[in-house]
């Protein structure tokens, strides 16, 4: 395991790699005592640039562990551009599962790569902020930072 962290406007953000070549987790969690590696350093730098307003797109190798359905949802989340939002229904339709809104919500809530896989950009069909593993205050901050609110 490899980790790096940064002190962001939202608190500590920890970046983890299992293999030293791809990111498997970005979360609002305290880091453990693991060494860093090139990919965690790169993610740390890109997140620092994001929080300072210098970056609106990430270029990182990702390796999130999840079911095939979760993987489809997480790939679709990455198409929601900076400064935009989508509803859970939008994501469900985009993955050709229009009745799977709740399943999309569950997959969204299990996204292990916060911010980079932008589950914070998914909102309720009526425009309300709904669920975010990091807390609605963080979701609101991220959307305001991206000028999506």
From TrEMBL:
The entry's keywords: Cytoplasm, DNA damage, DNA repair, Methyltransferase, Transferase
InterPro entries, A to Z: MethylDNA_cys_MeTrfase_AS, MethylDNA_cys_MeTrfase_DNA-bd, MethylDNA_cys_MeTrfase_DNAb, MethylG_MeTrfase_N, MGMT, MGMT_N_sf, WH-like_DNA-bd_sf
Residues forming coiled coils: none
Subcellular location: Cytoplasm
Enzyme class: transferase
NCBIfam families documented for this protein: ogt
PANTHER family the record matches: METHYLATED-DNA--PROTEIN-CYSTEINE METHYLTRANSFERASE
Family designation: Belongs to the MGMT family.
Name of the protein in question: Methylated-DNA--protein-cysteine methyltransferase
């Amino acid at each position: 395991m490899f980790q790096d962290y940064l002190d962001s406007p939202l608190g500590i953000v920890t970046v983890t790699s299992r293999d030293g070549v791809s990111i498997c987790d970005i979360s609002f969690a305290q880091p453990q005592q693991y060494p860093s590696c090139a990919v965690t350093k790169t993610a740390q730098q890109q997140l620092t640039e994001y929080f300072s307003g210098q970056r609106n797109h990430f270029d990182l190798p990702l390796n999130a562990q999840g079911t095939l359905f979760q993987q489809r949802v997480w790939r679709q989340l990455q198409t929601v551009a900076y400064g935009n939002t989508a509803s859970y229904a939008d994501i469900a339709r985009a993955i050709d599962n229009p009745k799977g809104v709740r399943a999309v919500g569950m997959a969204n809530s299990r996204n292990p790569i916060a911010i980079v896989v932008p589950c914070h950009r998914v909102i309720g069909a009526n425009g309300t902020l709904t669920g975010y593993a990091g807390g609605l205050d963080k979701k609101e901050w991220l959307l305001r930072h991206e000028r999506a609110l």
